[in-house]
Amino acid sequence: MQRRAQREQRDQRAKRLHRVLVCAAAVPVMLVAAGCSSDSGSGDSTDKAAKAAASASASPSPTVEAAAYGKLPEPCKVLSKKTLKDLVPESKSGKEGKSDDISARGNCSWNSLDNNGVKGSQFRWLNVSMLRFESDVARGPADKLAQEYFEKQVQDAQAVEGAKSTKSEPVPGTGDGATAVRYELKKKEGTFKQQTVVARVENVVVTIDYNGAGLAGDKSPSADDLMKDAKKAAKEAVAAVSEANGAGGGKASGAPSKSASKSPSESPSKSASKDPSDEPSDDASKAPSKKPASKS
């Protein structure tokens, strides 16, 4: 009996030990399973973040075609001496307008008064203005901005207050497009015949303002002759812009960035052009008190 009881006790102890070992063996298995589950979740999160970053970097940044021309010629040197002699024979030199950025805007004006005393006088006024545009991702390519400004300049020339006999015509062979506008403007000094030629070449707009009048009883100049001279000056100015940027133009160095400078919003002639009334000194041949050209 005693031996039987001892065997039963040993069997019970063996069973308890077996249960302990089984439980102990199960613990690391659970830990391993938990660890694998944790690693798997972390990997999924990392993969998703990596995929999102790759997708963002793959999206293309906004771009716009670079401007063709990156600079302007000196305003008072865009016309040859011969052309200036023909258009403003009595002018000694041009007056360059002020510009906060000579690579973007510039203008020069000339006054000429041929005083013939009691026989009257011939007055001429010439102004060349240039405006260059930069490409901008928000506003568009430079040539498109220049074209919009070109059209506005033509419209302004066609709508000058007090203008009479206004006529417009295309000017072939001058840049990428050009339009000439002519009209007459009567002042107390006489009738001034205004010729405005607006031309675009790539991302630059050139505006030629040329007017003439016979003062103190002298006869009025021929509008056809004045227009012919204005067209000649426009072609020279356009050629000077192209030459300043190298043969055939070519793209300006450096591609435009998102923060590219905004295009100028007004013509350099608006604040820098010379008033014709500053030149003549004789009361009998005084030039008009206000420039009869289109607002720039």
Folded structure, characterized:
By secondary structure, the protein is α+β, with helices and mostly antiparallel strands. The protein folds into two domains: 1-59; 75-285, no CATH class. It has five helices and seven strands; from the N terminus they run ααβββαββββαα. It has helices at 2-58, 81-87, 142-158, 223-244, 269-272; strands at residues 95-96, 105-115, 121-132, 164-170, 177-187, 190-201, 204-215. The protein has a seven-stranded antiparallel β-sheet with strand order 1-2-3-7-6-5-4. A hairpin with a 2-residue loop joins β5 (177-187) and β6 (190-201). The longest helix is centred in the N-terminal third of the chain and has 57 residues, at 2-58. The relative contact order is 0.17. Residues 26-38 and 249-296 have low confidence and may be disordered.
List keywords for this structure.
296 residues; alpha+beta; 5 helices; 7 strands; 36% helix; disordered C terminus
Per the principal axes of the C-alpha atoms, what is the gross shape? rod-shaped
Averaged pLDDT, please? Answer: 77
**How far apart, in Å, are the first and last alpha carbons?**
127 Å
Strand ordering within the main sheet: 1-2-3-7-6-5-4
Number of helices: 5
Say how many strands there are.
7
Task: Catalogue the unreliable spans.
Answer: 26-38, 249-296
Which percent bin holds the helix content?
25-40%
Counting helices, strands and paired strands, the structural category is alpha+beta
Order of helices and strands, N to C?
A: HHEEEHEEEEHH
Indicate the proportion of strand residues: 15-25%
Q: Main sheet?
A: 7 strands, antiparallel
Rg, rounded, reads 40 Å
Number of domains: 2
